[in-house]
Amino acid sequence: MNSNLAKITKVEIETFILPFIPKNKRGFPSQVNPVEIIQCILHKLKTGSQWHCLFIDIEGFKPSFSWQLVYYYYRKWSKENVFKNMFDTALMFQECKLDTENLNLDGTHSLAKKAGEGIGYQHRKKGRTSNILVLTDGNGIPMALGNISSGNHHDLFQLVPQFSAMINELKNKGIHVENSVLNADKGFDSKSFRRCCRRRKLMPNIKENIRNRKKKKRGRKREFCQKLYNRRFVNERCFAWIDSFKTLLVRFDTSICSWINWHYIACFLVILKV
Hints:
By secondary structure, the chain is α/β, with parallel strands linked by helices.
């Protein structure tokens, strides 16, 4: 894993992140440097440390504030969609580097140690997990994120509305994916999802799940290209990038808003270093 994804300088923070931080509309201006708050949030994302242990392993950093203040600003900026706006802007800025002709869709599970929103028991993982859908381009760059769903649901749970929302978000950003190939594993094999892809002028390249049929399909077989399907490995590389941020490996956040915003920050850092 490229460790440079976690290295971000103060200049980059002031250039790419600070413009999205909202200023107080009334009252006295904050005496805390927002750059230091952002550095603490990124440190928490990369190391996965607990909130009350945030300043223990940061050498040479003696903040004039407590970890509760960092937690307060993270929750505040998450509710104000600061990190989502960062991700959307970075994606539009790097649009020229996206391979929109080849798309990949897959989901990733994270073990959950606490009860909360969007958490369910997953037999395959032998524990409670949360699942999130990630749409990447042909180079493995994350382009859109789905909703947080509990691990006890299969891959087809609310797939069509989630995928439709992801495509609509890309269109609103000015990123068009018409006439593209969408690779997905056999867990996404369904008539409704294939119909959803064709309605949006996408060519679904989904491996057929033989467990969905008791008899062989009559007539013409579904279009499937194994050569294009083999390019799905870039999706696993994207998940390896995301898993390098230790906070995303094991979920301790109880709210969906807080958990999905960690993913927005991680995807933003991946796009920033492309």
